[in-house]
Amino acid sequence: ITLGRDYHIFKLFFQSPEIGEPQGKTNKNLIAKWYKNYSTMEAYQKSLREGWNRISAEDNLEMIDSICLLFKVPYEVVFLALIESGWKKGAKSPVGAAGWWQFMPSTARLCGLIVNSKVDERLDKKKSTVVAIRHLRDLYNLTHTWSEKKNITESDRWHFALVMYNRGKKKVKKTFLKTGGKFFKYPRALLATKTLSETRNFVPKIFGARRWKKKHLEGGGKIPIDLLATGPITANSRTADSTKKSVDLLIKSLLMFDVNDKLPTSSTNKIVVSPVIVKSQTEIGRASCRERV
């Protein structure tokens, strides 16, 4: 397999997703709404199309995939970056979020990025990507400190992690506990608190974008057919040298990781991705973004 653009298209759109679409009538309707927006409204479609062209160029997807493998974060977070910034370095929101992953200045600093009058590491593609994906891992881990109920699905935990990325921990914790970690109950719970529609739409918008792009690829005959018979692609089927090299360079440039965040290799030179370690709240605060909640 040539691990280029076709590999990443296959992994993102034609393998079983690691994060399933949110369930529940309201979530499904919101996903359908965003799919329709991307399908019929030129402004939305142009923004997503141009964002995809940027993020799928050069080695951007390879970089994101490598870091996702390192932190055991689902590759679908690519679509988070797409809807947040359109993968534009200079993207800036009216409230001050900036860069590839739209960090607010305070959150960026708490996560270890330098943001001052001379340097803004939110605009550093590799550093901000490492920090964003590590932050998402820690938000996911945080849901385990809130509840270890076995009937909470992995997808639901990641849905709440995505919401926390947008809304913050404190507010989401209340809703997580109120809904018992069931994301299909989340939109209705938000209606009761008169929360802005942006928050209700945040996760459905991500999956609406993914659905549209997948349909676009299917309709355009751009499915990488040569990959369809390969079966699931795992860390052990990756080219270890190129992946490990890119991640190692990132780690060396960012002296902010736990020892558990190193990427070891086995005697067979295959990548060994360390399992996610669910940390206590104290350890999460030490090792990741010390966000005020």
Question: Can you tell me about this structure?
Answer:
The protein is built from 13 helices and no strands. By secondary structure, the chain is mostly helical. The longest helix is centred in the last third of the chain and has 23 residues, at 197-219. Mean pLDDT is 78; it is low at 221-244 and 249-287.
Keywords:
mainly alpha, 293 residues
Which bin fits the share of residues in helices?
55-70%
Shape: globular
Q: What class do helices, strands and sheet pairing give?
A: mainly alpha
- Count of helical regions: 13
**End-to-end CA span:** 45 Å
The rounded Rg comes to: 19 Å
Low-confidence stretches: 221-244, 249-287
| Largest sheet, strands/sense/barrel | none
What is the average per-residue confidence, as pLDDT, rounded to a whole number?
A: 78
Please indicate the percent range of residues in DSSP E strands (runs of 2 or more).
Answer: under 5%
For the secondary structure, the number of strands is 0
Note the run of SSEs as H and E: HHHHHHHHHHHHH
Summarize the structure.
The chain has 293 residues and is mainly α. It has helices spanning 5-13, 25-40, 42-55, 60-71, 78-85, 105-110, 125-146, 154-167, 169-179, 186-192, 197-219, 240-253, 281-287.
